[in-house]
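Lab notebook, bench 4. We co-purified these components, and the gel suggests they stay together. Before we commit to crystallization screens, I want a quick structural picture of the whole thing.
Request: model the full complex, all chains together.
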Amino acid sequence: MQQLDNQEILMKLKSSKQFWDIKKKIKQGFSDQQKIGVNDIQKFAQSCEIEDQLIKLISHILKKSKKRETLKEDQIEFLNTSKIKWTELLFKNLDIVHQKTKNQEEDDTNTDSKLYIYDEKNLLAFLQTFKQQQSNNLYQNVQFQSNKILNINIPLKSSQSILDKYQYLLLQEELSDEKINKIRKQIENEHLDIELEKIAQTFVPNGERCLLYLKYFEFDHQDTVLQQHFVKLQKECLNQLFYDELLEIDGHEISEDTFYFVFQEQILTCLKCFIRDRTIKENIRIQLQSGIKKEHAEFQLPITGFFPFKNISKYVAPLCYLSTKIHIIYALFKEFFCRYFCFLHAISSESNSILSLCMQIEEIVSTRSPKLFHHLKVIGCDTLKLIIHQLVYCFIGDMDPPHILTIYDQIIGHDSLEILVILCVGFLNKYKSKLLLAKNQENVQQIFSELREDRFQELVQYAYKQ
Amino acid sequence: MSEYFRKYIKKEHYANHYSNLKFKTSFRNCILEAFKRRLWKETDGDDWDIMWAEKEWIHEVMDHTHLQSNQKINHFRNHYELTRKDLMIKNFKRYKKNLEREGKQEEANNYNFFPLTFHLPSEYPIFFEEFKRQTNNGDTKTAWIMKPIGKSQGKGIFIFNKIQQISQWKNTLRYNQDNPQAEAYIVQKYIADPLLIGGKKFDMRIYLLCTSYQPLTLYLYRTGFARFTHHRYDNEDISNTYVHLTNVAIQKTSDNYDEKLGGKWNLQTLKLYLMTKYGQEKVAETFYNIQMLMIRSLQAVQKIIINDKHCFELYGFDILLDAQLKPWLLEVNASPSMTSNTPVDFELKCGLLDDVFTIIDLEKVLTGNEEQIGGFDLICKGTPIKLPINSTFTTYLGAFNNRQQQLKKIAKSTAIRLAQTYQESQTKAIEVGSKGQKEKEEKDKQMRSSSKGPQVMQNGVNGSIKTNNQSKQNTIIKRNTTNLPTLGTVQNKNNVKRYPLQNAGQQSQQIQQSQSNSSKKNNPNEDSMLSANQKLQKLTQESKINQFQPYKQQSQYNDVMGMGSRNLQKNEE
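Here is the predicted assembly.
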């Protein structure tokens, strides 16, 4: 996004509710005077903190308009080297996958439908290796005392602060129709992110969600632009890539989900376009794989700068419940991935990264449910291994689409993935009693293979249950 | 889940025990399975109590046979007035005209749910005029769809937008003029902007049971399904039938037909999708419109169909939504397919049929005034039934199908009522015999307390509550008995006032929010028995109320929620 000039700032200001509130306040302040000078207004504004509010408002507009730089280097050197290792590992996996597909072409009888470069378990296993590496060096003493899988010295938010932040969700009340209609109008008229975030934090009525997302991502008047961009990408899809094959295999899994099978084709189209989209590299908030180029390798990283992974289709699926227009679905998916979901695959010390989220979950579970934590450790089925799937895929497939979209609301509302920590903790608490009875990994698997139904609100409740 | 009835109702309380019932059918799919699950016996002879016949049988045999008073059959004599494409439209048009003539313009305007239709060859000239008029207006894109009358499963259907495309059909018709019926068609304006989901066209199959045309008695089934085409919809390409026709019979032949899911969503999933996309209110309106569409369709033919107490009919309505969520009636099937292509589908259809049989009530255990039986909701009895204004629902169509819980409740309350009437008839008999009343009562008491359920009630009547380890059940039934003694007997019917909703009132409103799907609202005209039934429902609900109250939208979801296949399986297993 380019720099804004004064005119544009004013326009943005005018589109926010807060601006009009301030104006009203000023008007009220001068209602009895006839001549008003600029100085009077300035004095008045200073006296009742209006100036501060205005400054905040403008700075918020400017901040939002500034392009976010993609994070390439992490502040912790150790993670930078790890990222390179991770990338190398993935290149190796790619070779294996490629070899397998070649074999399959020769031998039709042996079709392996589970072809992917990496999945969430690989990712966790890789994160686990950090412990050993670090313990060899500095933190040996600390390691001995801890049962946690991950214990790396990165700056972490206190888990209590996360719990406090989302506690308001417990107090959600039923909203009257009148209030819901008010929110609807607000979404239609509001343009300022900070206000949209507030709405997303509390409640988004069905039917308005798409508009809210589009506005938040500043897509609301760009329908034709989005469409053109998408059509262009679709044309590029005519050139087959090796990765297409992987995506197609990936799509089969989604086709077995009752809620999403209808959208299989749309999802695949979106993903094919996604791996061909040049703009992703500049928009993505964090670089997932270190962009090393292998001179003699048969394959390079896709244009996006990272490999497609297993179940990538899951991220697209719930968005199909928002719009019938595929270019809108694509635009939303792209933005969600570049802003948020990328962190779920990033080896980084950022507060949203998979590493931080995992560590926070471990922290909360080990302090609030030490018995469960210990029990899982003993039966060889660590806490994180249990919830890694739900965490990385945002509970998609575990909850019904409207609940998933509520999670998305929260992600936007707080510009953060921390809600997933709350939900994962709630998830474990929900099945706590059953898990405590489990004697081995098979028991645990059995618990989760049974029919179950998890709901957003329910998991939040469980998360705060002592 | 008729097993609940078998479980709770004692053998001697049945007016007609299920082991005495016989059925006859030539079908070998879900129908046979559903019959067998009720433990009825199959027969080849004429001594059947219920017959599930093919349509043709009705036409050939029914007029020449005398049916016994207890015999039931699954078609009305001239059902084709509604279920043959051309006659249906003719009847709708005629009914609409009558309404206009009677000055009921508003109601007449509601008959706008079928596309512009002409009967060919008889109305060919009018059609040709209309076609020409449109072409002259520069509208060359409007497509028309030709459907052969009386064929099903999408056979013989084609779409065209140039008059030349039907010239071939016209020619063959001319050759066949000796036998004009052979190629009778209807031609309909094609609905060109259907609602697409995932880029695919779909239509809905919804089940409606009619047990009588006088008074018009209709039950609507909560679960239906949406059938998707397998190819992306393309308005330009009108020759590819896979794109345009949703019939399973057609889609099955497509290359990438998915066996596992059968290209279907159940109605609850569809509702969930629509709610997420369009919001609660719009979807509620749409589903209400669908319900009214079905009632209006039957009202239009009410006076034409020959009513017969032997007959009932299960209709499969095919309904299409356009991009504005307006429902269009495509067709009414008199014998909707009862073969299944997935296990979920199989259970859905068996459950549906089981509920049909419960409503038909060959065992004669119900009062006939039940508002919900299994997955069926009574939507019309003489006049359409209106739900209370403060109800969260405008229609139960597509709501959570709680048939299992509901049948359990209804079986329990029925058992109580039957035990009651049985006892009363016994006491009467004794009174007539003047002596030995006490002894008889003692006997009765002994006999009843030997088994659970309805018998516990006797304790309540006698004012002595046995301490029972089933204390919960005890209290529920005890509380009911305070209302019970007068119930179920006809002469007292008017004396017993139903408690209006205020009574169940504030606290139950919460219950309704969280479990509203399972509770039916009061209707002042209802039989008094139901109030006991409802109280029972309420009480059983109270013990089940969830601790937390999710916020509004969430609770509305809950009604629909989880009735994706996951829950359906859970329920029906």
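The mean pLDDT of chain A is 83. Worth comparing against the SEC data before the next meeting. The two ends of chain A are 46 Å apart (CA to CA).
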